[in-house]
């Protein structure tokens, strides 16, 4: 699992946005929500977002939602907030299992397909938290720097 860090305050800030998914939240839906939230925040502050940093945030949200669909029984909640120096995405699913990084090869040293999502999230996000949900399942929150 990723090393845990403390995220910024969860208090609502100007330009922050909360997005609830439709019944089936797809990675493309989550990416569009992140793009909208970031565009809105930078439109109100008259500064520019680093395109490479936005690409990192879009990749992280794609990996988190894809993993929730493939391994967590589907996305049960999705939130995006643009903070002062980054974008915080939270993806919740039905599974209590913690994410793990898989080996790239099997016992016979043959290359496996997949297994790269969690390491990508851990590498690109500044802060990553995994929280159990009271009704079951988990919520993974990642903060990706935008500058």
UniProtKB/TrEMBL annotation:
Transmembrane segments: none annotated. One of its GO terms (molecular function) is ATP binding. InterPro entries: Anti-sigma-factor_SerPK, HATPase_C_sf, HATPase_dom. Keywords: ATP-binding, Kinase, Nucleotide-binding, Serine/threonine-protein kinase, Transferase. Pfam families: HATPase_c_2 (PF13581). Residues 1-26 are annotated as: Disordered. Coiled coil: none annotated. SUPFAM superfamilies: ATPase domain of HSP90 chaperone/DNA topoisomerase II/histidine kinase. Residues 1-11 have a biased composition (Basic and acidic residues). The keyword ATP-binding applies. Residues 35-142 form the Histidine kinase/HSP90-like ATPase domain. CDD domains: HATPase_RsbW-like. It comes from the Bacteria. This is ATP-binding protein. The lineage of its organism: Bacteria, Bacillati, Actinomycetota, Actinomycetes, Kitasatosporales.
């Amino acid at each position: 699992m990723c090393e845990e860090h403390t995220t910024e305050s969860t208090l609502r800030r100007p330009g922050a946005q909360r997005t609830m998914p439709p019944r089936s939240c797809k990675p493309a839906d989550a990416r569009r929500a992140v793009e909208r939230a970031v565009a809105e925040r930078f439109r109100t502050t008259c500064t520019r977002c680093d395109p490479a940093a936005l690409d990192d945030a879009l990749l992280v949200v794609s990996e988190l939602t894809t993993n929730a669909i493939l391994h967590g029984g589907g996305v049960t909640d999705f939130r995006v907030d643009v903070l002062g120096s980054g974008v915080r995405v939270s993806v919740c699913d039905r599974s209590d299992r913690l994410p793990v990084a898989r080996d790239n090869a099997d016992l016979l040293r043959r290359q496996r397909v997949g297994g790269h999502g969690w390491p990508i999230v851990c590498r690109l996000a500044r802060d990553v938290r995994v929280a159990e949900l009271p009704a079951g399942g988990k919520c993974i929150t990642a903060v990706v720097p935008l500058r």
